[in-house]
Amino acid sequence: MPSETDRIFSNFKEHSVAEFFKKNKQMLGFSGKTRSLTIIVHEYVTNSIDAAEEAGILPEITVKVDEIDKDSERYKVSVQDNGPGIPKKHIGKALGQMLAGTKFHRYAQQRGQQGIGATGCTMYAQVTTGKPIKFISQYDGKTLKGEISVDIKSNTPLMQNVTEEDNVEKAHGLYVEGEFGEVKYDRSQGSVFEYMKRTALANPHVSLTLIEPSGERVQYPRSIEMCPPKPKETQPHPLGLAVSDLVDLAHREGPNVTLAVFLRERLQRVSDAKVGELAAYLNGQTAGLAFVDFKKPAKDFTWPEAESLVKAFTMVKWIAPESNCLRPIGAEHIQKSLTSILAPEFAAVTERPPKIYKGGIPFLVEAAIAWGGQSGHQLAEGGRGGDIIRYSNAAPLLFDISGCSITKSVKEVDWKRYGIDDFDKAPVSIFVNFVSVHVPYTSAGKQAISDEEEVYAEIKFAVMEVSRKMQLHLGGIRREHEQAGRRAAVLRYVKQLSKDLTELAAKGKADELQARLQNLIETKYMSQIMEGKDEAVGGEEGDDDGEDEGEEEGDGKKAKASKSAKSGKKAKNGNGKDAEDEEE
Amino acid sequence: MPSETDRIFSNFKEHSVAEFFKKNKQMLGFSGKTRSLTIIVHEYVTNSIDAAEEAGILPEITVKVDEIDKDSERYKVSVQDNGPGIPKKHIGKALGQMLAGTKFHRYAQQRGQQGIGATGCTMYAQVTTGKPIKFISQYDGKTLKGEISVDIKSNTPLMQNVTEEDNVEKAHGLYVEGEFGEVKYDRSQGSVFEYMKRTALANPHVSLTLIEPSGERVQYPRSIEMCPPKPKETQPHPLGLAVSDLVDLAHREGPNVTLAVFLRERLQRVSDAKVGELAAYLNGQTAGLAFVDFKKPAKDFTWPEAESLVKAFTMVKWIAPESNCLRPIGAEHIQKSLTSILAPEFAAVTERPPKIYKGGIPFLVEAAIAWGGQSGHQLAEGGRGGDIIRYSNAAPLLFDISGCSITKSVKEVDWKRYGIDDFDKAPVSIFVNFVSVHVPYTSAGKQAISDEEEVYAEIKFAVMEVSRKMQLHLGGIRREHEQAGRRAAVLRYVKQLSKDLTELAAKGKADELQARLQNLIETKYMSQIMEGKDEAVGGEEGDDDGEDEGEEEGDGKKAKASKSAKSGKKAKNGNGKDAEDEEE
User: Fold this and answer.
1) How far is B221 from chain A (nearest CA, A)?
2) What single-letter DSSP state applies at residue B441?
């Protein structure tokens, strides 16, 4: 007789990653019709830019959206790029298998990284319209055409109608076309329209064309004729490397590679002299730390040895991580873009050195601020409110706004210190581009950056840096204007009061005066108070929240006291450790 | 000579889902030390409760956290349950392989659903301490012991030191123990401590014990001695089924099952008569819709036929979805829990009928409100502020607060209409439990519910319903208190003014009076204004934002005008369609 346990476990099954994401489409960003369409364009456009850059080609991309059926919210999306194309051998897996691709195992800065996105689009077409994705890949003198879908159960590509011909013009590029349901085209905040605009803003070397369902062509010609350097693979920096990363890396080596050689060859900034320093430190510290034999084969490296070594890493001095693997947009280009698109009264950009986060991963943050003009976004009640323009590796982040480390960092800034009373009601745009060889996204939908301590701190410092620039520039001027306005409002009451009271008080009766004054205030003023629109009258407003802000400097190892004149109590360095307290 | 394309694609690789989540641990919720520890406890505790309930056992769970090394933030976590245990054949995959388990393919309400969580913990132990998870599984008269880790590259379990003995006492249960790094124990908001408390709050039939690193035992004995009914598998409801779901389901059938039989057997609420109705509708509507032969084998069902049928589903009347697959906590239990834990002045709970969201998935929302006493959370500046207590299938959601549909729904409520001027500063707790056979989480970390239109609307309506109850109960009393407070504050100024002015005005000089009055106001009052703490003085506060709120009713198909007396312009029904406008 089968037991109860047998009954329960008769349900035990395995499922593929494609089944998982089919059932949880929202984790890929497919939730909401406008957003789903944007996610599709985002996946294709980032892949296209990555591919062209990898091949050293100035990217040129045309996105076309056609409405197939208004009632059923079905659209056709096609994307044509001028990249290197995808060879026959790989196109199936590139567009029809999740967790496959050229990027996941590399330690190089690219927009895509997961090997999920394009196949996610194939799956979305399939489950919303039942149709495969059509492709034309031109590469190495060949033209490959066909259709592709995903076998969801096994997470493998299904190809049909595949033909390959010679392509005498040696044209190159990839064309993909799909029909998608449960999507909608508009020009709202999270739309394809906005996505293309933001992509253009941060990618001045890319030529972008959007053909809308109405037939309108929206064009963003490139403003730089120079291809950025190819993404360079880098190696982990010893600082921030976890024990498990170090063991994993070491165990990949062949039997003849010693630990010393492994460290020198596979990590950044490790010289023979540095290995000597590490050995010297460990020899002096045998108590509590495992002995490390730097001459043993790296593949025999043990966990306790790795723990000792990671400890030793933190005790010697290091050169900051290589920055040539990171490709920022560049202050000049950001300034130009912001100026041309937002026409602000003032804009400032910051360039900061690379930092490291957990896992020894180098990153850097580019931040800019724009004030006035078209900065900020249009508020429903009129005027403009603070806007945060987020990017990771120059790819726009349009969704999951509140869950993103960039948003949190910006919101945590004590804006009053920079002359902005209410960020949500100021004509200001904050631009942040997070640049790294691995972006810690909160989910496979790649729309928000996770709250890693070092990342969060660095973004906040970068934003504070540009905010200080803005504050210095604007000086007290704007603030005086505001104060003058408030003063005038109060003085209107005072004038009226004075006039009325001259008569009243002349009669000399304090009681009657009080009654009348009370009446006057209640009629003119109290109605507002009673409706709860004037919370501060009782004077119970809390004090400043004592937010800890500070400036940091240095190589991400030791925090130094900062040169900031304005800010406060505790500084954190790039690795999130507390720095010395400092007072103004 | 290899081409450029060959060079680029030489990097093309596949990777396992375990590699993916190892590189993106934050997607499983492993970001931040306190949070990471809570995620570990969460995964084990939800599995334990699910397993015991599945076997009809009243759950009894002990969680023990021990500090191993303060400096390296390393803790040992063990969880003992009294569930059915896991047989030898399955324990490897259950604890050491992602995307494997008993829950993913079922259409039944359980806390876990992904088959990732426990293996995610094994992986986290491995990469932070290099150690396997130890387990003792007692089941069917056997005691199985061993250690387990994940082969990350292949996503397969690695077992070692496995022994199996007879267990004459026929004890049952699972014990797991792991050492984890990069974690921290405390009693903060997102801590294990808080997690256990919230689990107890929503699971009165579970007996929970937490043994803290200090040795302190925190006990939550069960308050009901009755096991909830076992989770019942259900079938999709025709409404909300996507074309692809319908095709997928039909194609699973054997060759002898006709479409009509498939519909009747595999979907909820489909009778022979209903099939007749659908056929009649489609016969009358041949233009534009594909002909559907209900006698053909279900496995030959085509996409265009499925499209016709999905259209027809929306044109006939349906009985509401079965609710016996959904296991709410129950209004009585929620009321009891809130009362005992928060000791509020007032609490109200709502019981609402099940609704359907995309994919034909039934769900229901339980909402409650508590006012006064220990409701809300402690504010730094004193007093208590609005708190949102979120659950999905009675499992607490502690993180990704702002990205969650529950949070968004609560924040979108126009609280002023319910007598709450500022939700963030009111002593109020909103309790929401989202109950469904499939929870649309935003990420694999399972801490936030995605913004599905129907889900969002239903949560908001549920919260509005309990808020109305609270408003009716409290009536104008609380508001009067507040007004009296404000009035007193203003009158303090009036009294002072009157006194000072009696003297001044007696001199009869309006100019001087004005100057003095101005001075008085500036000293006493203006400093606050100038610091921007009194925004309303200029009287420019915007109007009510005209938020669209409404009450909805019915079976999730047609919206009816509502019976709500208070609220506004547009109502949405459970499927998110606009209902008729209504005026007060």
Assistant:
1) 26
2) B
Closest by CA position to B401, among listed B385, B412, B387: B387
pLDDT of residue B381: 84
Within 159-188 of A, beta carbons closer than 8 Å to B belong to 181-182
Contact B536 A533 (CB under 8 A): yes
d(CA A11, CA B558): 38
CB-CB contact of A96 with A122 (8 Å)? yes
Is A484 in a helix, a strand, or coil? Answer: helix
Q: State phi, psi for B79 to the nearest 5 degrees.
A: -130, 125
B88 interfaces chain A, CB cutoff of 8 Å: no
- Per-residue pLDDT at B49: 94
DSSP-assigned states of every residue in A281-338: HHHTTTTTS----TTSBGGG--HHHHHHHHHHHTTS--PPPP-TT-----HHHHHHHH
Q: Does B383 touch chain A (CB under 8 A)?
A: no
Interface predicted TM-score (ipTM): 0.77
Q: Are A276 and A270 in contact (CB under 8 A)?
A: no
- For the ranges A555-569, B46-60, B96-110, B532-546, the maximum mean pLDDT occurs at B46-60
Confidence band, pLDDT 50/70/90 cuts, at residue B223: confident
Residue-wise pLDDT tens digits, A431-460: 999 999 889 998 888 889 998 889 999 999
To the nearest whole Å, the CA of B337 is away from the closest chain A CA by 30
Q: Which residue has the tokens 């602000």?
A: A344
Mean pLDDT calculated for residue range B319-325: 81
Q: How confident is the model at residue B554, as a pLDDT?
A: 36
Supply angle C-alpha B247, B253, B259, rounded to 5.
65
CB contact under 8 A, A244 and B128: yes
Q: What does the pLDDT read at residue A124?
A: 96
Phi-psi region at B248: left, alpha or beta (left = phi > 0; alpha = psi -120 to 50): alpha
Q: What is the pLDDT of residues B405-448, one digit of tens each?
A: 999 999 999 999 898 889 999 999 999 999 998 899 988 888 89
Answer whether residue A193 shows pLDDT above 60. yes
Give the span between the Cα atoms of A345 and A474, in whole angstroms.
10
Distance CA B458, CA B363 (A): 10
Cβ neighbours of A538 in B, within 8 Å? 485-486, 489
Cα–Cα distance between B84 and B48 in angstroms, integer? 9
The predicted structure's pLDDT at residue B537: 29
| Residues within 8 A of B (CB atoms), A 30-59 only | 31-32, 51, 54-55
Give which of A114, A15, A113, A10 is closest to B98, Cα–Cα: A15
Does residue B60 carry a pLDDT above 80? yes
How many Å apart are CA B235 and CA B267, to the nearest integer?
Answer: 5
To the nearest 10 degrees (0 to 180), the angle between helices A331-342 and A192-202 is 140
Q: What is the pLDDT of residue A362?
A: 86
pTM over 0.80? The answer is: no
Output the DSSP codes for A264-282. Answer: HHHSTT--HHHHHHHHHHH
Q: Does the pLDDT of residue A521 top 90, yes or no?
A: no
- How many other CB atoms sit within 10 Å of the CB of residue B295? 8
Neighbouring C-beta atoms of residue B314, cutoff 10 Å = 12
- pLDDT for B359: 74
Is A546 a residue whose pLDDT tops 80?
no
DSSP A212-266: -TTS-EEEE--S---PPPPPPP----STT--HHHHHHHHHTS-TT-BHHHHHHHH
Distance CA(A551)–CA(A160), nearest Å, equals: 58
Question: Helix H segments across A343-423?
Answer: 405-412
User: Please, what's the largest Cα pairwise distance for chain B?
Assistant: 107
| Tokens 């508590």 -> residue | B370
Q: How far apart are CA A371 and CA A430, in angstroms?
A: 9
Full 3-state SS string of A128-182: HHCCCEEEEEEECCEEEEEEEEEECCCCEEEEEEEEEEECCCCCCEEEEEEEECC
